[in-house]
Here is the input.
Amino acid sequence: MEKQKKTHSSAETSSSLGDTAAFHGILSFSILVFIPFLLLRYQKAYVSPFDDNSTMILAFVIATLTYIAAMATEFKLRIRDVECPNIITNTSQLSAPLASITLLMIIFPYLGLFLLLIWVGFFVKLAIDSYQELFQLVGDAARCASELIRKKNMETKKEEKIDDQPCAASSTTCDSPV
Here is the structure.
């Protein structure tokens, strides 16, 4: 029975990994499709997109780097059969469309704004769904940090007690110069 559960679990993981790969493939392809349109729009202009839309280009670069980091982390965890936190999956699922939308806002501003409004709706939905997990992760990190600080303080106190103990040979303390 346990063997069947394990096989079923690995089948779910492989299918979800395939679905995830398809999702990332589609979004990566959309980014690659919009870049030539960006070049086409600024082909005869004497202004580059970096001069004309520097904020959008910066948003595109940040969204793309965030997407790459989240996607690599998600794949790394799924390949190792470690449960991927929803925060990483949601970050990946939100940053790739944002990168596509920022490029689209440069090429076709009105269509980009419309899609940005839809993206904001998805962002709010995912933020509401995953706020509990985020607070749990922050709480776990805070607990671990306080535990590490407490252990470090205990080690420091133990060292201070050892330094304050009298020496065996004389009645002076160990840290006295004589």
User: Anything to note?
Assistant: The first helix runs from residue 2 to 41. The chain has a mean pLDDT of 77. The CA atoms of residues 95 and 116 lie 12 Å apart. The two ends are 74 Å apart (CA to CA).
